[in-house]
Amino acid sequence: MGKKRKNAPVKVNNETDIYSDNLIENRLMIKILELQRVVLKKLIDRETSPFNQSKNNNDRKNTDLNSNSLN
User: pTM of the predicted model, to two decimals?
Assistant: First the structure.
């Protein structure tokens, strides 16, 4: 007799496998969307804070001056 494979996947039926795959995929997508939301919120907070607003304006002025000096 042949040797049994260890940790062989147990298949109930295709519908169960598809359901399980979709469930895992949906959970991963939810996590990705949650992370995107957090990152976007932090970026928006950073851009709209009063301290950074003046800093961003100064950065833009410096960039404009630098680009004009190249011409």
Answer: 0.47
